[in-house]
Amino acid sequence: MAARSFLYGGDSGGSRSMVSFEDKRNGSSSLFFRTFDQEDNGDDEYDDYLHHPEKKRRLKADQVQFLEKSFETENKLEPERKIQLAKELGLQPRQIAIWFQNRRARWKTKQLEKDYDLLQESYNQLKANYENLLQENENLKSEVLDLSEKLLLQETVKGTSDSSSTKSPSESLQQEQMADCLNNEDVSNASNVVVKTVVSESTSPRCVDMTQSLLEHGDSSNLFEQDQSDGSLDEEDNFGKMFATPVSGYMLPKIENGDYPELDAVNSCYLGFHDHDDNEEQSFGFWPY
DNA sequence: TTGTGTTTTATTGCCTCC
DNA sequence: GGAGGCAATAAAACACAA
């Protein structure tokens, strides 16, 4: 380590020591500071000091206030300002430097606490959004199931009462596929089959939007992606998984190379996390809001 | 008064920059 | 290599309950 002489030495370039003590000559409690040059080594006061080292003293309120104001304007201390402050406050430059150093440390700690609180708040909001999405997903699934059953029933009744009527081959195939899926409780595939019907029958505007979107994109395979999990994940795991795998690919805007959309544009559902390339390390964006 | 927790002042060792 | 910054830490000063 570079040799630093302390007891306030070393700041002004020379090897100086300083001691602070109460001004007992006039009985006041104010501090004044005395410096000892090397040539003072024979001095009685210095000798006294060596044998009765002073305890550290707190700065006075007005000194602290002055330093605080100075810190507000600039939290780093250039040598000129340090000398200036030391003169104005009757302190050693070294004390000023130490005060600024400690003050910066306190500021940093506070800042970390603030950042932590912000992160905590954002996490809570994300979690709430996630839970809402789960709920909405459940609602939509039951609605699709309900409508599918209705449709099947309708078609069955129609089929028995009108067995002689002619159907196009594609209509027949569609009915068969749907019946298969529903018998196998494969709701996801059933939704592919009935999606066109759902558009016309759904009472949910959101559902209509979604199914129309499906038709436009020609792919509904992501609609029930959550269902593809093995069910062994707990809620926290699903929440984490969502960051890497969007709940529904078509519902969320396509994200490429960290080009994030505005939150409002995706109804605050986009969570700011993405994995843009299988071979690349996942990168996580973050929007505090 | 005293024990205890918190805050402030100061030191130490390491690191970076010039 | 010196100057100065930072993290970790010591220790004095302070606050406060019992």
TrEMBL record:
A single GO cellular-component term on record: nucleus
Compositionally skewed regions (Low complexity) per UniProt: 161-172
Stretches the record annotates as Disordered: 1-22, 156-178
Pfam families the UniProt entry points to: HALZ (PF02183), Homeodomain (PF00046)
Signal peptide limits: none
Gene3D superfamilies: Homeodomain-like (1.10.10.60)
Record localization: Nucleus
Protein purpose: Transcription factor.
Protein known as: Homeobox-leucine zipper protein
